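Exam revision sheet. Question 4 asks you to relate a sequence to its structure. Input first:
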Amino acid sequence: MQCVWSIKAPEGQVVKIKITDMDLEYNVECKHDFLKLFEGGGTDASLVHIYCNNPQEEPIQDRFREVKSRGRYITLYFYTDRSIERRGFRLEYSFAGQEDGQFINNLPFCCFIRTIKANYTVH
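Answer key, structure tokens:
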């Protein structure tokens, strides 16, 4: 299963993402379940980070727990192979002024995405 979300800040502002919880199926190559964060309006934009429960990043490194875009857009791409059920991830976003770095329009948006085990057989 794949999900893509693009977040667009109002004119003159940037996007701030804060990962508040993450529990995904771990694989050393981030192949099973992962969340990719892109700087821009699509998955062809610059990749900022891949979150995939790497034990070396538990808890998530502070520099990637909160990410602030340089422009108006951030895109999130979530992939799960649906083989092992885990808690998933939870994040919050807000908008900030580009010039002063102060966060305004602190929106009460967050989402919790849970990975679920699929009931299918692969042949």
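Marking note for examiners. The chain has one domain: 2-115.
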